[in-house]
Design brief:
Length: 182
């Protein structure tokens, strides 16, 4: 961690438990569509947070389309993500109640976090977009290691259908870098 100063940050957001973390590492308990969830996952080598604008927003604002496609790409690559020891969480600026229905309807198989105040995403450096009078996350992914260190922020994600693939490629790259150092 070098000479970087450790700064204590306190974040609060509706529907997400208040959490503290020390930069550059984080450990939180987020309230998800499947209940409280540890981030990063202590049982996985990697935790990938898939940030999207808002499920279904493309129906209203076509220029932001692709959230459902991106989240479904993660669902469809679940076996590959599991083999890579990646715990998956989707994060949206939408209300958690809507997210639960969305996740169930699409049988995502992984939890979603409603970060309506954008506190988690902003703390992790996730870019935002403006849609009318609303501020939403840009499509991105954040990869944390088991220690809670942010290892990568992937943005932009121009092709939502490749959202999961981009994370898998980055995880493979991170693992190769670690092997080279060992």
């Amino acid at each position: 961690m070098g000479d970087r100063a450790v700064r204590r940050v306190r974040l609060t957001a509706p529907r997400i438990r208040t959490f503290d973390f020390e930069e550059p590492s984080m450990h939180i308990t987020a309230l998800t569509t499947e209940g409280p969830t540890a981030v990063p996952s202590p049982g996985h080598r990697w935790t990938a947070l898939f940030f999207i604008t808002e499920p279904g927003i493309g129906e209203v604002l076509p220029e932001l389309a692709g959230c459902t496609t991106g989240l479904c790409s993660v669902r469809d690559d679940a076996a590959r993500l599991a083999r890579a020891d990646v715990r998956v969480l989707g994060v949206s600026a939408h209300a958690p109640g809507h997210l639960a229905a969305f996740a169930a309807e699409r049988e995502l198989g992984y939890p979603l976090v409603g970060d309506g105040e954008l506190t988690l995403g902003r703390a992790l450096g996730v870019p935002v977009v403006t849609a009318g009078d609303r501020t939403l996350f840009a499509r991105a992914a954040v990869i944390l290691d088991r220690a809670g260190t942010v290892r990568a922020v992937l943005h932009p994600v121009p092709d939502p259908a490749r959202h999961a693939e981009l994370v898998l490629e980055k995880v493979a790259e991170l693992e190769a870098d670690e092997s080279d150092r060992a």
